[in-house]
Design brief:
Layout: H1 14-27, H2 33-51, H3 55-73, H4 81-93, H5 97-115, H6 123-135, H7 139-157, H8 165-177, H9 181-197, H10 207-221, H11 255-277, H12 284-307, H13 311-325, E1 340-343, E2 361-371, E3 377-386, H14 392-399, E4 403-405, E5 407-409, E6 412-414, E7 416-427
Antiparallel strand pairs: 1-4, 2-3, 2-7, 5-6
């Protein structure tokens, strides 16, 4: 039986042995700090390549890097996570969505193996998976990925941590895009509670959440479709068990709550501008940015009044904004010369006929009308319809419910004569149908 022996190292051999250790570390994938920095620089360069639309070259470099790491460290090395994630980015840029999804899946798997199931670092990969799912039309998969990323961060940071605010904002905005206004509002309110508990309820950090609350009431009171409930895609609705939505039920058209939120935003922006004006080191550019932010918050409040039919209040705010932003007539900071559409139910697009297998065609309806100072229209006339009569009724009917921000002059809102509105859509010309196709794909009603 062989016994172990201690190894004596001569002083003159220390340098040689140290060099051998460094060489072994390099060969087996254990980089020195300088090498790690060099690797990170290379990854940063590759990420910039992808941003510069050089995804082909970046993909080739990443595959070589991944092979080298696998040979030296094995297939489960933590150092594979970032190159695999970037490879997914390159493949996504090349529209290779299935390959990108596979790269992200492997990167996430390795991240969870090496850093734990609830490491918040994995959320950058999960959000990429959500984006791929959206691009593939998998709305439920995208929602599940977004919610999973939120749950990971909530478990790691805690439900009351300010570190959770970006996750609350992202998931709330995702729900808002899917017209899930109750879940979105709940998350935005949670964020405000966190800020208030940290004495930051009146800070700039509260602005997006206050605006999100107001937007949720607008979505609730002015749905995006004329026939509302069945047009909300259930695949984008909240699937989170801990969402307390019941307290929000029955708040339809809650004008005061949204108004208060937008008024609070105005107060925050005004306070920021006032504070900056007292500081001698504040530059003119910074003051201009703060002033513009204040004007935008006032514009949102004016549009809110316009939407809910509070025309007198809206007129006062529009007139004030015109005066404030047209002090230099040659360089106004806001343009009020033309009306702006604030709300119009989306016209119902033509259905895809059963068995239709050819490409769709582009159609258009062009109408003109007068926009009144109260944001409503009159004297609606069709100027052009192609194909003739296909979408005229849909567009004209929905325009009757439209609300505009009127054109504004020095004396306030004015009438805009013969304003032209154009609606583009896709339709399906009659022709040979694919006999193999057997399902009808329809727009939600």
């Amino acid at each position: 039986m062989q016994t172990s022996r201690s190894i004596l190292i001569r002083p003159d051999a220390i340098t040689t042995k140290a060099m051998a250790i460094v060489l072994a570390l390099v060969l087996f994938g254990f980089a020195t700090p300088s090498q790690a920095a060099s690797n990170q620089d290379e990854l940063d360069f590759i990420a910039a390549q992808i941003q510069r639309a050089e995804a082909d070259q970046a993909s080739a470099l990443l595959r070589q890097m991944i092979e080298q790491i696998e040979r030296s460290q094995g297939r489960y090395a933590e150092d594979l996570v970032q190159p695999l994630t970037l490879l997914g980015d390159a493949q996504s840029a090349l529209n290779q969505l299935k390959a990108a999804a596979d790269s992200y899946d492997r990167a996430l798997h390795l991240n969870r193996i090496n850093s734990g199931l609830f490491d918040p670092g994995q959320t950058t990969i999960v959000y990429r998976q959500a984006r791929i799912a959206m691009n593939q039309g998998d709305l439920m998969g995208a929602r599940q990925r977004e919610e999973y990323a939120f749950e990971v961060q909530q478990r790691h940071y805690g439900s009351g941590s300010t570190e959770l605010l970006p996750a609350l904002a992202r998931l709330g905005q995702f729900y808002q895009r899917g017209y899930n206004f109750l879940a979105a509002r709940t998350l935005f309110k949670r964020a405000l509670v966190i800020l208030e508990s940290n004495d930051a309820g009146d800070s700039q950090a509260a602005v997006p959440f206050l605006q999100g609350i107001a937007e949720s009431y607008l979505t609730e009171g002015f749905p995006p479709f004329r026939y509302t409930p069945s047009q909300y895609d259930p695949r984008m609705q909240s699937g989170m068990r801990e969402q307390d939505l019941f307290r929000e039920v029955g708040s339809v058209n809650n004008f005061p709550a949204g108004e208060r939120a937008l008024q609070q935003v105005v107060k925050i922006q005004q306070a920021a501008l006032d504070s900056a004006q007292l500081l001698s080191e504040t530059t003119d550019e910074e003051l201009a940015q703060l002033s513009h932010a204040l004007h935008l918050s006032l514009l949102k409040l004016a549009d809110w009044h316009q939407m809910f039919g509070h025309i007198r209040e809206a007129k006062t705010l529009y007139t004030h904004l015109y005066d404030q932003t047209h002090q230099d007539p040659e360089r106004p900071t806001m343009i009020f010369a033309e009306p702006k559409l604030l709300y119009m139910p989306k016209p119902k697009d033509p259905k895809i006929p059963r068995g239709y297998a050819r490409d769709s065609a582009s159609g258009t309806v062009e109408v003109q009308f007068d926009v009144l100072p109260n944001g409503r229209i009159r004297d609606l006339q069709t100027v052009q319809s192609d194909p003739n009569g296909l979408m005229d009724f849909q567009v004209r009917r929905n325009l009757r419910d439209a609300i505009f921000r009127p054109a504004v002059g020095i004396d306030g809102p004015v009438i805009s004569k013969a304003y032209v509105h154009k609606h583009d859509f896709e339709y399906y010309p009659e022709g040979e149908l694919d006999a193999v196709a057997s399902s009808t794909i329809e727009q939600p009603e």
